[in-house]
Amino acid sequence: MKKVFVKEEWCLGCHLCEYNCAFANSGLDRMEKLKGKSIYPRIRVESGKDVTYAVSCRHCKDAICVKSCISGALHLENGAVCIDHEKCVGCLTCVLVCPFGAVVPGENGAVQKCELCLKNSCGEPACVSGCPNRAIVYEEG
């Protein structure tokens, strides 16, 4: 299964992956409509002393977030960990157990996380196609 990987040595910390992700999952037809609005990306850029890198779901084979989901909202679809937002009760247990910090509270009470842009027909994840330095790749892993 293809996954998103980050080459932190190439990450510029520009946050374009966050904007491309937020736009791809917003349902809007033009990115500039995000201007002045809060964005809710499913990937986020973190920075340390000498490094910046993007944090995204690793789509674990034995995902603890899926096992801990009390409502069954988190589930596996073709190897990807996905969310049924209608089932999510907002208990945030998955946020607490994710060892990578990739599951976060969303804008409407349900959690959100990377779903590899499988539901928004981008082809490849928007964070990958929008990274100017190719620090984010989508490949077998």
Descriptive overview:
The chain has 4 helices and 8 strands. A hairpin with a 5-residue loop joins strand 6 and strand 7. It has 141 residues and is of the alpha+beta class. The protein has a two-stranded antiparallel ribbon with strand order 1-8. The mean pLDDT is 92.
Which helices and strands, and how do they pair?
Layout: E1 2-6, H1 16-24, E2 44-47, E3 52-55, H2 64-68, E4 74-77, E5 80-83, H3 93-97, E6 104-105, E7 111-112, H4 126-129, E8 136-140
Antiparallel strand pairs: 1-8, 2-3, 4-5, 6-7
Q: Helix and strand string, N-terminal first? A: EHEEHEEHEEHE
How much of the sequence lies in strands comes to: 15-25%
C-alpha end-to-end distance = 7 Å
The poorly predicted ranges are none
**Treating each run of at least 4 consecutive H or I residues as one helix, how many helices?**
4
Structural class: alpha+beta
- Across the major sheet, the strand order is 1-8
Overall geometry comes to: globular
Oligomer: single chain
Total strand count, please? 8
Mean pLDDT: 92
Quick description:
With 141 residues, this protein is α+β, with helices and mostly antiparallel strands.
Structural features:
141 residues; two-stranded antiparallel ribbon; 4 helices; alpha+beta
